[in-house]
Amino acid sequence: MITAAAPFLMFQGACEAALTFYAEVIPGARIVSLEKKPDGTVAMARLAIAGLEIMANDSPPVHAFDFTPSTSTFLTVDAPDEVDALASALGDGGTLLMPPDDYGFSRRFAWVQDRFGVSWQINAV
């Protein structure tokens, strides 16, 4: 029987910086736990965003792959200006995949890949 399920982000040395960044720019986000290895990298961490717990770590082996925009975290906000603010903050140093706009399926939507390579879709209801 499965007792829990959570998204997992695997970084290559930037886990603590990324989670700290998310806790600073995403309203209500917080680092729940962060355990470091003796070398200072993150062994295991948990970030909470609007009730969703995301697990993360720094991978011990270096991999030839990184994050892809095809997997993203979808953030729903109350107002269109919140889409713009989050897209600006999360997209700083990253890539704007879909700039904030009305795309027909949403009155205000944006998709960004942040400077750590993690993708975020931001939508106003």
Helicity level: 10-25%
The counted number of beta strands is 8
Supply Rg. Answer: 15 Å
Oligomer: single chain
Present the secondary structure layout.
Layout: E1 8-11, H1 15-25, E2 30-36, E3 42-49, E4 52-58, E5 72-77, H2 80-91, E6 95-101, E7 109-113, E8 119-124
Which key phrases capture this entry?
125 residues, alpha/beta, four-stranded mixed beta sheet, 2 helices, 18% helix, 40% strand, globular
Describe the 3D structure:
With 125 residues, this protein is an alpha/beta fold. Helix content is 18%, strand content 40%. The chain has 2 helices and 8 strands; from the N terminus they run βαββββαβββ. It has helices at residues 15-25, 80-91, and strands at 8-11, 30-36, 42-49, 52-58, 72-77, 95-101, 109-113, 119-124. The radius of gyration is 15 Å and the shape is globular. The N and C termini lie far apart (35 Å).
Kindly summarize this structure in a few lines.
By secondary structure, this protein is an alpha/beta fold. It contains two helices and eight strands; from the N terminus they run βαββββαβββ.
